Amino acid sequence: MTVAVVGGGPAGMAAAISAKKAGALKVVLIERAERLGGVLPQCIHSGFGLSYFGQDLTGPEFAELLGREVEAIGVEVWLQSMVTEAYPDRSLLISRAEGISLLKPDAVIFAVGARERPRGAIAIPGSRPAGIYTAGTAQYMTNIQGYEVGKRIFILGSGDIGLIMARRFTLEGAKVEAVAELMPFPGGLSRNVQQCLKDFGIPLLLSHSVIEVMGRERVEAVKVAKIENGMPVAGTEKVYEVDTLVLSVGLLPEVELLRQMGLTILPYTNSVTVNQFFETEIPHVYVVGNGAGIWDLVDHVVVSASTAGAASVANWGVERSEAFVEPCRDVRLVIPQRILLGADEPPVLWFRAGKPLSVSKVTLLRGTEVLASRGYLSLRPAEMATFPLRKEHYEKLKPGDRLTLCVSEVGSDA
Ligand SMILES: Cc1cc2nc3c(=O)[nH]c(=O)nc-3n(C[C@H](O)[C@H](O)[C@H](O)COP(=O)(O)OP(=O)(O)OC[C@H]3O[C@@H](n4cnc5c(N)ncnc54)[C@H](O)[C@@H]3O)c2cc1C
To answer: What pLDDT, on a 0 to 100 scale, did the predictor assign at position 382?
Structure first.
């Protein structure tokens, strides 16, 4: 059989390797860029691979290790090849240097990553001067192209990319005035808050946002205020004289090709529904990595993509009934949303809490019946957590069951 993997980032490479290991005769890895790695080559900081490779690697090192495996195992790599159209029968239209190709593999795995939420999505009033960048673009310009994006910088949003860039700009000699975060808690991992802000004395303004950008040709200042109930609090405004505003306000899964195939996009993951093998509602079509929902760590991305790669071969021709899972209050997202019944191994549910919680109980409910529950010492929205289902609980599931994954802080009535 032939498996096509669209996107040669860490998710695509891991899926391709595992499909090949599982026995696929031909695996084609299709990447639009001139090299494999996805966003990893621009992430020159360490912190990658701690659980997957058991080493503290930089992004380029992590990509290099996976790339070597892709080559060694005999995956066919098509670089500078972009999938421009995808059809429900799994046909792919690919634009290549040689011309247009049409491929109809037995299984397709989409590993197309995510795009950054742009400024328009957060509607900051003010003119449209130069000097406003998304964090990933600023990272690409700094680490790959060697440009200085600004000398005095304000960062809006405390997602991991923004935190990492706050430290990077500082190391490059720029002054990062502060990072503002709309929520009352940081958007990124605790280790990044410590290592990228606190260690460098960069203030983190929680429940704050940029309410105006000033400057005509180039950013000259930003006005920042405390936000309560979605509105600026009068009297809390402060103007920061900066030449650059960097936005780190989230990633959105890349779903255009999935949409073209007729798949429905879920509002809370901004992607399509998948089962525990990351298979979409179209049989033999999979979606993994940041394209399936935004993951925190590349190690998680790789583990989940490997599941899909192996399943694309092992599940070939297997039809099974399903149960369905939804997040309830205080759970931001759950992956998978569909559970195939009768698989050899019980599934793992990946979820994110909607707000920081200390000692908590997570419960899987069928109506009001508790099917399974587990305790957690702490849960953070920035961190993907796992809820492995035990075999005896998995075996209780019936076709068409509607389940909810709920969380409550121990000691609260929620
Ligand atoms: C700035 C930044 C810092 C990060 N820091 C860390 C960290 O410290 N530690 C950590 O563990 N994780 C970190 N991450 C997260 C990690 O990089 C991501 O989880 C991971 O890269 C997601 O992998 P992916 O393969 O899903 O997507 P990507 O890496 O985005 O790869 C997607 C690939 O698909 C290709 N593609 C898209 N559409 C098409 C198409 N139509 N045809 C062909 N190819 C296509 C793209 O060119 C790209 O190569 C960071 C991420 C960012 C953005």
So the answer is: 85
